[in-house]
Amino acid sequence: TLPFSTGSVLVFKDGAYVCAVTVQKNPGTRRLVSVSVQARGHVAVRKSRKDTRSSPPVRVYAGHRCVRVTGAVGSGSYRSGWFLC
Rounded to a whole number, what is the distance in angstroms from the first to the last CA of the chain? Predict the structure, then answer.
């Protein structure tokens, strides 16, 4: 779990796949919620929607590569460095 001011990014790893979803800190308000996952050497996969709770999940094949995760809720956002190497 990677927290930031308006929400948090939940990251899951299942074998060679990495899944991420952004969740609002205070659900109930309809806001733009987005998440993206990028495996090193590949293009980032982004998904977003206006919702009262969370973003759509993003699932990426990472293999043994490092990944970078970005999440945003309204005006707050989070961007990680490379991790899960």
Answer: 17
